[in-house]
Amino acid sequence: MAAVEVATQTMSYRDAISKVLSEEIEANPDVFIMGEDIGRYQGTFRVTQGMFDKYGEKRIIDTPITEAGFTGIAIGAAMAGLRPVVEMMTMSFSILAMDQIINHAAKIHYMTGGQAKCPLVIRGPGGAAKQLSAQHTHCLEGWYAHAPGLKVVAPATAIDAYGMLRQAIRDDNPVIFTENPGLYTVMGEVPDDREFVVPFGKANILREGTDVSLVGYSRMTQINLAAAEKLAEQGVSAEVVDVRSLSPLDMTTINASVAKTHRAVVVYEDWKFGGFGGEIASRIAEESFDDLDAPVVRCGGLNVPTPYARNLELECIPDVDDVIAAVQKLG
Amino acid sequence: MAKAKLEEIESPAMLEEFYRQMLFIRRFEEKCNVAYRLGKIGGYMHTYVGMEATAVGIHHAIKPTYDYMITAYRDHPQPLLLGTDPVKVMAEIMGRSDGMSRGKGGSMHVYDIERGFFGGWGIVGGHIPLGGGLAFASKYRNEDRVTICLLGDGAANQGVVFETMNMAALWDLPIIFCIENNEFAMGTRLEYHAADTELYKRGEPFGIKSERIDGMDVLSFHKDMQRIVDWTRENQKPYWVEIMNYRFLGHGAADNDRQLYRTKEEEDAAMKRDPIARLEEILLKRNVMTREKMEAIDEELTDQVEAIYEQADASPFPDASEVYDNVYTDMEPEKGH
Ligand SMILES: Cc1ncc(C[n+]2csc(CCOP(=O)(O)OP(=O)(O)O)c2C)c(N)n1
Ligand SMILES: [Mg+2]
Predict the structure, then answer these.
(1) Domain ranges of chain A
(2) Domain region containing B107
(3) Which residues of A are less than 8 Å from B101 in CB distance?
(4) Residue list, ligand 1 pocket, CB within 6 Å
(5) Which candidate among A116, A129, A248, B57 keeps its CA 20 to 30 Å from the CA of A149?
(6) Cβ-defined contact of B333 to A148 (cutoff 8 Å)
(7) Structural domain includes residue B207
(8) Please, which residues 40-79 of chain B have a Cβ atom closer than 8 Å to chain A?
(9) What is the pLDDT of residue A6?
(10) CA–centroid distance, residue B233 to ligand 2 (Å)
(11) Nearest CA distance, A116 vs chain B (angstrom)
(12) Rounded mean pLDDT of A249-277?
């Protein structure tokens, strides 16, 4: 890639999201944000901090606690040509709006035979924060990726959050943009470029290796990076594939990595049983069978409602040791 | 469209138009039922027979194709009135490639976005927040559109209705919730599904102007709707209207068991409220039209519907390769089994 001189800033994942939201609000009068406590209260996770004062109540809209209702209003507004960004206080609450998202937003373009579009973004924290217990911790990206008509992305780094959220807002399709709460404070270099986008459907190799591919997305990519570091100390060269975009899914990059390493571990925070990692694993098995020296292994969240006690909660979420144990299973 | 004065609305020409439109809808819907029985139409299909005055009265109260409209699955008459090519409506109902959605939607999912008709939805109550969103968008852009959001008496019990009413009132959205109270939600009679059967009262707790009106007399209904639409446009606030009508046939074409939820006597009594027969009485009384003229119009419309059907039936089924089209605007979904 040709080196282009673009100034960068070091900032957190949270600030990268906040930055692109502000920039897109400024760039396009059709863009507005709606959600619970995002305005006067500045957002539960402070992603929209300062925006209400700066852009006013027309653009930064505090909603009642009615996820299905306001998501539906956003969908209707999108059909009529606006570009709403809906913040879910946590993605767990989007379950209340699932009928609106899956039964309505995802199908508009298809059922109208292309007459209508639904340029909508639904974003918010998905996955475990810290001791938020069973009802505030869901990873729903796999549920959404299951539905045709939605695009689903789960960036792991500040720069991807910045570039993928802009892509999401400019996209003419409904996009689910999930932000793991554990990522908000992760720092990274972000370009100072109001046109910077990261296209969907492109996985990214964050660390090269030769012995095993660690395939993951969202916060699990950060875990995979840490695991690769530790594996290197043990003489195992792990390649970290950051999937970034679940739908569309870039199997080309994933298969190419497996062709090189001949082994794959798919890591995901969602419940292991029936989760999106299973889709990736089966695709690798189908498409890279001849390259594999061992069965593809999944490393996912425990199949339990997330418990409150910190030690139990940590038990549920894949960590560096769990990833290393999964790699060791490959023999 | 300049707003017609009442005298104009009640002019012989306008009365004839009301009559033709209601009768056209009825003959179109009856043809759909025949086609359904012939196996030319599949799935779920719900007709508007008995409720024609509601669609026609609303159509004449709004600025057609400028105002927004959204409804559930009883969605054939609205696009027909808005000027959508009836062949394309029929072809969609028949799942053909000349349909509005190229056969992807079917009877329950007819849309004409260009004419402000946003469908066409099958999840009872699900489209109501979308209607709120249409009104939200027009308000956001400082337009003076109103949004007509039609819903059934059964749909009025869904949670999202109350969510949307709250936000519509909170944000002053120019939306008219039009409950088509045809007394039944499928096979469940109003008094078995609503704690208080006076559904119009449900707007009051939200401070939404509310009323109940007769939807079987197209002339009085049209006047009521005109007043309500004008008020909503002027004041840019929501309105909650309970429109009393009745569906004469089964819930859908697949409902052959009306005796399970209503008697023949009840139906006969309801038929006396037939909006078309009622208008015929008025036309005769005012010497606007003779019986012979009515029969001639009926014959003409029946032929027209027949021709529409024939044309739609000549349209091919969509090509199998189209199955992946329009899942996304800019990419194809994962392919293959
Ligand atoms: C969420 C949901 N639940 C149930 C159904 C099945 N269903 C379809 S129509 C209907 C009755 C709706 O009655 P009403 O709202 O009064 O409308 P009408 O058919 O009388 O016009 C039911 C139960 C559905 N389509 N969606
Ligand atoms: Mg009903």
Answers:
(1) 10-191, 204-328
(2) 6-313
(3) 111-115
(4) B 46, 74, 122-124, 152-155, 180, 182, 184-186, 251
(5) A129
(6) yes
(7) yes
(8) 68, 70
(9) 85
(10) 27
(11) 7
(12) 98
Write the ipTM.
0.91
- Against a cut of 0.90, is the pTM above it? yes
Q: What is the CATH number of domain A204-328?
A: 3.40.50.920
pLDDT in tens, B219-276: 999 999 999 999 999 999 999 999 999 999 999 999 999 999 999 999 999 999 999 9
Residues in chain B where the model's pLDDT stays below 70? 1-9
B positions 249-268 inside 8 Å of A (CB): none
* Residue from B78, B107, B124 whose mutation best tests the ligand 1 pocket (most atoms within 8 A of CB): B124
Topology agreement, domain A10-191 and domain A204-328: yes
CATH 3.30.420.40 correct for A10-191: no
How many residues appear in chain B?
A: 337
What mean pLDDT comes out for the span A154-163?
98
Helices A67-79 and B128-140: angle between axes, nearest 10 degrees: 60
User: Confidence band (pLDDT; 50, 70, 90) for A5?
Assistant: confident
Cβ count within 10 A of residue B209:
17
Ligand 2 centroid – CA B51 distance (Å)? 11
* CA distance to partner chain A, nearest, from residue B66 (Å): 12
Query: CATH code at B147?
Result: 3.40.50.970
